[in-house]
Automatic annotation (TrEMBL):
InterPro entries per the UniProt record, alphabetical: Anthracycline_SecMetBiosynth, Glyas_Bleomycin-R_OHBP_Dase, Glyas_Fos-R_dOase_dom, VOC_core
Name of the molecule in the record: VOC family protein
Transmembrane segments: none
Domain VOC: start-end pairs: 1-110
Cross-referenced Gene3D superfamilies: 2,3-Dihydroxybiphenyl 1,2-Dioxygenase, domain 1
Alphabetized SUPFAM superfamilies for the sequence: Glyoxalase/Bleomycin resistance protein/Dihydroxybiphenyl dioxygenase
A Pfam family the protein falls into: Glyoxalase
PANTHER family, per database record: CONSERVED PROTEIN, GLYOXALASE-RELATED
Length: 227
């Protein structure tokens, strides 16, 4: 996953204090992006927006052995390619796609960078929730693309689907919401606000834990999950 930000330095200050992340120097990841690390393990990347009109957002990338073939399957299933797969140096091949309801997600074909160095630990990725207007259609679309990864008997759960209206106003577009694990949700919500972020949705109970939705100091939304 990565965050597209107007000010990467401000993002480093916010997430560094919030999660205890450290950061690589520009050029060690790709372009002007920086790796975010926790105890040396890669947990995310922060990237500068190449166009100010782009949204400030966290993007989750689905792993695939063939980004080009997956892009064709997405289009054939009623989705669309937003950014066709392109090489990211020797790290891998990336792309952006949207499902039939407009929710955007990334594609990642690994080269030298396989993905998360750590997840499910405090301060790292723990869950992605798709908020959609049509849960049944989303199950069909993503189940057809990623059946084994999403629904396999041996898969560790990372992904869920819910109706937009369960948490957000009815007019909210379909979207993916990245969740970071929190040891103490109330404490970390206080830190978000001290650092210039805001609480978008106060804590609520889900089948996978207690969740709150926040925005960072630049407006990127994410969730905090206490298992």
């Amino acid at each position: 996953m990565d965050a597209q930000l107007s000010d990467v330095e401000a993002g480093k200050r916010f997430y560094g204090e919030l999660f205890g992340w450290t950061f690589s120097e520009p050029g060690q990841a790709y372009g002007s992006s920086v790796w975010a690390r926790l105890d040396g393990d890669r947990v995310a990347a922060l990237s500068p927006k190449v166009d100010g009109r782009m949204p400030t957002v966290w993007t989750v990338y689905f792993a695939t052995p063939d980004a080009g073939a997956l892009g064709r399957r997405i289009a054939g299933a009623g989705g669309q390619l937003v950014v066709a797969p392109f090489p990211v140096g020797d790290l891998g091949t990336a792309g952006l796609a949207a499902d039939p309801d407009g929710a955007v997600f990334g594609l990642w074909q690994a080269g030298t960078h396989p993905g998360f160095g750590r997840r499910h630990a405090p301060g790292t990725f723990v869950w992605a929730e798709l908020y959609t207007r049509d849960v049944a259609a989303a199950n069909t679309f993503y189940g057809g693309l990623f059946h084994e990864a999403l629904f396999g008997a041996d898969a560790e759960p990372d992904f869920g689907r819910a109706d937009v209206g369960e948490v957000f106003p009815a007019e909210m577009p379909s979207h993916f919401l990245t969740h970071f694990r929190a040891e103490d949700l109330d404490d970390i919500l206080g830190a978000v606000q001290r650092l210039g972020g805001r609480v978008q949705v106060p804590p609520f109970e889900t089948s996978y834990g207690r969740v709150a939705v926040v925005t960072d100091n630049q407006g990127a939304s994410f969730a905090l999950l206490q298992r």
